[in-house]
Design a protein that fits this description.
Layout (H helix, E strand, L loop, with lengths): L1 H21 L2 H29 L2 E17 L4 E6 L6 E2 L4 E5 L2 H43 L5 H41 L1 E3 L4 E6 L6 E2 L4 E18 H4 L7 E6 L6 E9 L25 E6 L22 E7 L5
Antiparallel strand pairs: 1-8, 1-12, 2-4, 2-7, 3-6, 4-5, 6-8, 8-11, 9-10, 9-12, 10-11
Helix pairs in contact: 3-4
């Protein structure tokens, strides 16, 4: 029992000591100052962040963009072979698509034979024309000297006209055959589709053996040496920026990496003007909506290939980004 009383007595003394400490002015000051200090730090950070946002125009409606080309056929034909697949690197003037040209090649041989036949007809028609000219000159002289009657002279004149017409027709046939051969040769060339630029196959739309129509997409190629950021800015903010303004770029694929660039082009129209259904306010049912203007921003520090940007970052068209444009162009 004495031990229990002794423990209770010590515990009471300890509680009384802690109560005295808590009641001291120093402890009371600490309880007030620590939350106040934390509050002031948070306020300072908020002010610092707010001041850092001043002078910047930002948007998350941005993405990586670049030059692209869509390859298509100029004529109806069956695809004989495709030389590249998605992700392959291609060079300018590289053969990518071969259409079946067997029918065209047969037509070309036929047209060449027609040209040869027409040229032989010209040779024969020219001989007949020269003979008709001689006969006419002879008949003319004899008619003037009253040696032959007028009927015989008229017959020679009509023979000359017929020979001249036959010669002209033969020449025209050669021209027509050459024109047909030219069309066939052009189609033969169109049956081989070349890459229009250096780049990467982004999309293959067809397979070998498919029949393609004129204008039907076959490949989509991106120029990986020429990419940029396209940011859709509100029309109310565009007046504050100009070409040359500095920009900070965050790309969603690389959240820990900061990229930099400069504004190099401000769109001459809003993005809605090229939408599938452009706005038409003539009906009277008008709802005002802030429009977006496309702004192009270069990406600094890129190497020759965008897939090896800044040493290790692959920047691909279509990637999402966020931009902060510094008004005045100063970092």
């Amino acid at each position: 029992m004495q031990q229990i009383k002794l423990k209770r007595h010590r515990q009471n003394q300890q509680d009384d000591g802690e109560a005295k400490i808590e009641s001291t002015p120093v402890y009371k000051k600490k309880r007030v100052l620590i939350p106040l200090f934390i509050f002031l730090v948070l306020v300072a950070l908020g002010i610092y962040w707010y001041m850092g946002q001043q002078g910047y125009i930002s948007t998350d409606d941005a993405y990586i963009d670049g030059n692209k080309a869509t390859l298509s056929s100029k004529m109806l034909g069956r695809i004989d072979s495709l030389a590249a697949d998605e992700g392959d690197t291609v060079k300018v003037d590289e053969k990518l698509v071969m259409l079946d040209r067997s029918d065209l090649q047969a037509q070309g041989k036929s047209a060449a034979a027609s040209i040869n036949n027409a040229q032989e007809s010209i040779t024969l028609a020219k001989v007949n024309l020269e003979k008709a000219k001689d006969d006419f000159q002879r008949a003319k002289s004899q008619f003037q000297n009253n040696i032959i009657p007028k009927e015989q002279y008229d017959h020679a004149a009509r023979a000359l006209e017929a020979a001249q017409a036959e010669y002209n027709i033969s020449v025209s046939r050669v021209g027509t055959a050459k024109a047909q051969l030219g069309v066939i040769q052009t189609n033969l060339l169109n049956g081989i589709i070349l890459s229009p630029m250096n780049g990467v196959i982004a999309k293959r739309w067809v397979l070998a053996g498919d029949v393609v129509q004129p204008g039907q997409p076959i490949y989509t190629i991106y120029d990986t040496k020429n990419i940029w950021i396209t940011a859709q800015l509100e029309e109310t903010k565009v007046s504050s920026i100009k070409p040359g303004d500095y920009a900070e770029i965050d790309i969603d694929a690389y959240p820990d990496q900061k990229f930099y660039g400069k504004v190099f082009q401000i769109g001459s129209n809003t993005a809605s003007q090229f939408s599938l259904i452009p706005p038409n306010n003539a009906s009277g049912n008008f709802t005002k909506v802030t429009q977006r203007v496309p702004v192009k921003i270069s990406i600094e520090g890129r190497t020759a290939d965008s897939r090896k940007t800044q040493g290790k970052f692959a920047l691909l068209p279509g990637m999402s980004a966020e931009v902060r444009i510094k008004e005045g162009g100063v970092k």
